[in-house]
From TrEMBL:
PANTHER family, sorted: MITOCHONDRIAL RNA PSEUDOURIDINE SYNTHASE, PSEUDOURIDINE SYNTHASE RSUA_RLUA-LIKE DOMAIN-CONTAINING PROTEIN
Protein name: RNA pseudouridylate synthase
Region Disordered, annotated ranges: 1-20
Domain of life: Bacteria
CDD domains referenced in this protein's UniProt entry, alphabetically: PSRA_1
GO molecular function: catalytic activity, acting on RNA; pseudouridine synthase activity; RNA binding
Source organism (scientific name): Amycolatopsis thermoflava
Residue ranges annotated for the Pseudouridine synthase RsuA/RluA-like domain, each copy included: 98-245
Catalytic reactions of this protein: a uridine in RNA = a pseudouridine in RNA
GO biological process, one term: enzyme-directed rRNA pseudouridine synthesis
Length: 319
């Protein structure tokens, strides 16, 4: 069953949060319940939101005196966190009636979560392209640059998400890492990867294989290699874990093999991992689609610039 339309418009490209009130309880007013449910709000903030008309029910704004209605819905916009602007543009590789393919820069999250809300690919593109229903068919790590597939309307989302779920999308990545002349390529890494809830990193454990990556060495120079990574599965941090497994962690990796703490405004030495190509049969048109990122990896183009931490070290556009 689809959700009823929200009585509040989007704000900054974000839909309002929706809460369903409990079927029973001791509250006289909706405010009484929200004061308990939204207890993390700063003192007085709930009453400010009510006075400003920032909380709405099915019949209009909720006031401090609106009676509690069991099972009713209310909508409101959450206060946004203070965010450090990500100083890199997001490119559009392709746009048509139902698809947008974007080139996400390093350090930009795919969707709002935690401390990253406005500074996400989804919110930026909704705003810049004027597409309020835009939604991602898959995700990339905040640290990874490259191709992201979005659908322009909600009715297209399920079919395209199913492509990724059923592994009917061919994906290739590019990475820069140390060159080890003792390793033979191509090589296929197979292991079991798990990521515990609340943990920043994933880990390899004994047990049935659930992650597989083919690694090819494209070229090498000055002790660095340029690698093609072709994942057969899609575990969290799989490519980063498997490159570390080989003893050649991806340059700029702040998680593997060890966690390196860095502030959110540190945009130096980005992870040298790029989602390079996407290929699939479009479930809407039936046509074969092939997209290629226009970004390049800075540590291969100029290691001195990348390691020095200036903007030339990010995934950048050629020319």
């Amino acid at each position: 069953m689809s959700h009823r339309p929200a009585p509040l418009p989007q704000r900054h490209g974000l839909d309002p949060a929706r809460l369903k009130l409990p079927a029973e309880g001791p509250w006289t007013t909706i405010r009484d319940h929200l004061a308990e449910r939204l207890s993390r709000l700063p003192a007085g903030r709930l009453d400010e939101m009510l006075a400003e008309g920032r909380i709405a029910g099915e019949n209009g704004p909720v006031t401090a005196d609106t009676p509690f209605r069991p099972g009713a819905f209310v909508w409101f916009h959450r206060d946004l966190p203070d965010e450090v602007p990500v100083p890199f543009p997001i490119g559009v590789v392709h746009r048509d009636e139902h698809l947008v393919v974007a080139d996400k820069p390093h350090f930009l999250a795919t969707i709002p979560r935690g401390q990253h809300v406005l500074e996400t690919a989804l919110v930026r593109l909704r705003r810049d392209l004027g597409l309020p229903e835009l939604s991602p068919a898959h995700r990339l790590d905040r640290a990874t640059a490259g191709l992201l597939l979005f659908v322009t309307r909600r009715e297209y989302r399920g079919r395209h998400q199913t492509l990724f779920r059923d592994r009917r999308v061919t994906k290739e990545y590019e990475a820069i890492a140390r060159h080890d002349p003792h390793l033979d390529f191509p090589v296929t890494v197979r292991s079991r990867i798990v990521k515990d809830r609340g943990s920043l990193t994933a880990r390899e454990v004994a047990g049935p294989v659930n992650a597989e990556t083919r690694v090819e060495l494209l070229e090498h120079a000055d002790g660095r290699g340029r690698y093609r990574l072709v994942p057969a599965t899609g575990r969290t941090h799989q490519l980063r874990v498997h490159m570390s497994h080989l003893g050649i962690p991806i340059l700029g990796d702040r998680f593997y093999p060890t966690v390196v703490d860095a502030p959110l405004d540190d945009f130096r030495r980005p992870l040298q991992l790029l989602a390079k190509t996407l290929e699939f049969t479009d479930p809407v048109t039936g046509k074969r689609r092939h997209f290629e990122s226009k970004l390049t990896l800075g540590a291969w183009e100029s290691y001195a610039d990348w390691s020095g931490g200036d903007e030339a070290g990010t995934a950048s556009r050629p020319g």
